[in-house]
Amino acid sequence: MELADLEYRREDLTSTIATAMIRALNAELAERYPEEGANHFRLDREEVAEGRGAFLVVYGNGEPLACGAIRRLDADTAEIKRMYVEPHIRGQGIGRRLLTTLETEGRRLGVKRIVLETGERQPEALGLYRRAGFVHVSPFGEYVGSPLSVCMAKEL
User: Fold this and answer.
1) For 65-93, what is each residue's pLDDT tens digit?
2) Going from the N-terminus, what domains does the chain have, and what CATH number goes with each?
C-alpha cells in the first residue's frame, strides 16, 4: 500500500470504527501494562469536537488502519492522544504521517506547543516521537504520579 493512497478522516469518537480502534489500542496497552491502574487515561467526545481538537482515522483501501487524536489543553498547548496503528501495517510510515497530520491540525487550532504521553514499554512510540522532534518533559496533568508514563513535547 502506498502512503499517498491513504485517506485521513475525522471520525466521531463514539462511532463504530473509532470504538473498535480504541478497543484494539486498549487491549494492546493492557498486555504491555498489566499493572492495576496503569491504563486510566481518557479522551472525551467534546475534547475532539471541531475547534477544540480532532479524532482522525487513517484508511487504506477502505479499511481503518490507524487512529490518533489531538485535544486543545489551553490557548497555546494541545495534546496528542490515542495514537494507534494496526500491528500488521506497522513499520511503513503510517504513524509518522498520522503524527504529522495531527501536528498540522494543532497549527490549525492555533497552538504553539504539542505535548503527549506514552509509556516506557513502548519503544516504537518513543522512537517515533523522538524522530519527530519531541523531547522529554516533566509529567503534566493526569500523568503526574504515573510511574510508567513518559511525557514529551514539541514546539510548533
Assistant:
1) 999 999 999 999 999 999 999 999 999 99
2) 3-155 (3.40.630.30)
